Amino acid sequence: MHHPKTKERAQDEAERARSKAEQEKQRREEAIANLTGLRVLSAIGSAVPVRLLKRDLLFVVEKLVSTLDDSRVEMLARQHGIRQKRDDGGVRKTLAAFLRRAEEGTLSRL
User: Fold this and answer.
1) Has residue 86 got a pLDDT over 60?
2) Residues 6 or more apart from 26 whose CB is under 8 A from it?
């Protein structure tokens, strides 16, 4: 009674609902893309019939990581237990150092 819904208020609520629905759709699409990417990488890893040398694995992994956006690099680092230090220069630099020290098995999984 004191604050009846005005036309503007109803439009604002409708706009917020549309915005929320759009954000949820975008989150679902991103989750599907992430899952699809992981499945594709897994399929590629299981399809490679030969054992690659460490230098070859390192080359491939470094090239692939350089094409990833920052959010995916952070996800990859988190997946392998890599934590970024504040003064370290970023998660990309930390991940690159991890890759150079990694064993062949770890590089294969990456």
Assistant:
1) no
2) none
d(CA 50, CA 98): 24
Counting Cα atoms < 13 Å in the Cβ hemisphere of 38 gives 9
pLDDT tens per residue, range 8-56: 777 788 888 899 999 999 999 999 988 888 888 788 777 776 777 888 8
Secondary structure letter of residue 86 according to DSSP: T
Instruction: Give the rounded distance of the alpha carbon of 43 from its chain centre.
Output: 18
Flag whether the pTM goes above 0.70. Answer: no
How would you class 86 by CB atoms within 10 Å of its CB: exposed for 0-12, middle for 13-18, buried for 19 or more? exposed
Give the other-Cβ count within 10 Å of 73's Cβ.
19
